[in-house]
Amino acid sequence: MNNLNDPPRWNIQPDPRGRGAGGGDGNQWNYALLVPMLGLAAFRWIWTKESQREIQKVKSQYDKDVSTIKNEMEAKYRETLSERRKAAAILELELEKERQRVKGYKQALVSQSQNLMEERKQLHQEREALEDEKQKLVKSGAAGALLHKALERENDWYNRATATLRELEAQLVERQNAYCSLIQPRDQRLEMERNMLLKAVKEPISAELDLESDLKDIFKRDKHCADLLNMDKRKNGSLMWVYLKYWQLQVTVQKHKRAEEAILGGKLQPHTK
């Protein structure tokens, strides 16, 4: 039986041998294990340093690339912003030019209307003066009869001229309605304008009233339209109505001037007993 007080040497005991010739075997094994461990530690230290350098290198390159891209984007943004501001400035300049052009058109229209009103007033005064002269001639006997006869001779011309103006008025009403219409084709309106100009040139009174030039002025400047719910075509237009009154006054004045020229030219002689 085994003696529990003297168990067998199951555990590793210190070598009872001294540090003799064979006493260093255990320490040699320890040193043999230490060398690889030191080598592994040195390798890990070198690998760590190399990795840190690589990481730092990549990080520096990344920061450099990011900075380059950022600078390029900022430059592109500034360039785009400059182009947009330049384009906006050009558009603003063009808009201001258009505003000034529209303002000039309005001023020209107002000035033209004022001139026409002044001419109308002058023609009205001339008409009144002619009427006064007519009354004086009528009261003068033979001269009054002569003037009355001369005016009667001009009635045919006057009636034809008045009929021409009425027809022209109807055409202008239709033209202005076409201009104000949202559905009527623009080409149709232009065709109407061309036909009116051709007919005005052929009319006998065109040269005396300068219809062609006045019609062109109406087509260019009269842009007045009534509201969208308007059903009365005659409410459209503004400058055209001023011209129509002006032409009618001119026809009346021309009638008296033609009669006066007939008398002064000797085309009519007073009746003698």
3D structure, described in words:
By secondary structure, the chain is mainly alpha-helical. It has seven helices and no strands. 12% of the residues are buried. It starts with 24 loop residues before the first helix and ends in a 9-residue tail after the last helix. It has helices spanning 25-139, 142-153, 155-180, 186-202, 206-209, 211-221, 239-264. Mean pLDDT is 78; it is low at 9-23.
Blueprint of the fold:
Elements: H1 25-139, H2 142-153, H3 155-180, H4 186-202, H5 206-209, H6 211-221, H7 239-264
Helix pairs in contact: 1-2, 1-7, 2-7, 3-4, 3-7, 4-6, 6-7
Overall radius of gyration? 56 Å
Which parts are unreliable, with pLDDT below 50 for 5 consecutive residues or more? 9-23
Number of strands: 0
Q: Specify the overall morphology.
A: rod-shaped
> How much of the polypeptide forms β-strand, as a percent range?
under 5%
Number of helices: 7
What is the H-and-E element order? HHHHHHH
Helix content: over 70%
The structural class is mainly alpha
Largest sheet: none
Average pLDDT value? Answer: 78
Q: What is the end-to-end distance?
A: 198 Å
Short key terms for the protein model shown above:
single chain, 273 residues, mainly alpha, 0% strand, rod-shaped
Describe the structure concisely for a colleague.
With 273 residues, the protein is mostly helical. It has helices spanning 25-139, 142-153, 155-180, 186-202, 206-209, 211-221, 239-264.
